[in-house]
Write a structure and sequence with these properties.
This protein is mostly helical. 90% of the residues lie in helices and 0% in strands.
Length: 153
């Protein structure tokens, strides 16, 4: 900016008015200024850089399109897998009745206690002489086996 003001220091007021009224002369002077030439060169460099970047981007476009297509396919596959998972999970939940492990444990313990009581009642019946030995042994062994299995589970 200092070269601009230095350039006009030597002009008289009438010369300055003439320049101000003559648009072509003023435009020519502005175009010849160092600052304006630097701005013009910077603009040209920026345009060249932008063009180079645009060309590079255009060469990458087919790869981008191919990768987009792969991503779309994989996303579709993921959706199918997720839907299959949801279906299997709902089937499993339906089959298991959504019972928790604590509930299953409580049920097994209750059934185990019930069989224990039945076997004790059978033993009492046998000791009282209400049941003979052969049927008692067959039934008693099977129920005790079931009671032990439930306890182990």
């Amino acid at each position: 900016m200092s070269s601009f003001s230095n350039k006009f220091n030597g002009y008289t007021m009438t010369q300055l008015n003439e320049i101000l009224e003559d648009d072509d002369k003023l435009s020519k002077m502005v175009q010849e200024m160092d600052e304006m030439q630097e701005v013009q060169q910077s603009k040209e460099r920026t345009l060249v850089n932008n063009r180079t970047l645009a060309e590079q981007n255009l060469t990458l476009q087919p790869r981008l399109e191919r990768l987009k297509e792969q991503l779309t396919k994989r996303y579709g596959s993921l959706q199918e897998s997720f839907e299959s998972y949801q279906l299997r999970k709902s089937t499993l939940d339906h089959r298991s009745g959504n019972t928790s492990l604590d509930t299953l444990l409580a049920l097994l313990q209750a059934e185990g206690a019930k069989i224990e009581e039945e076997t004790e009642n059978m033993a009492d019946s046998f000791l009282d002489g209400d049941v003979t030995l052969d049927p008692f042994i067959d039934v008693y062994q099977s129920k005790r086996k079931l009671a032990h299995l439930r306890r182990v589970k």
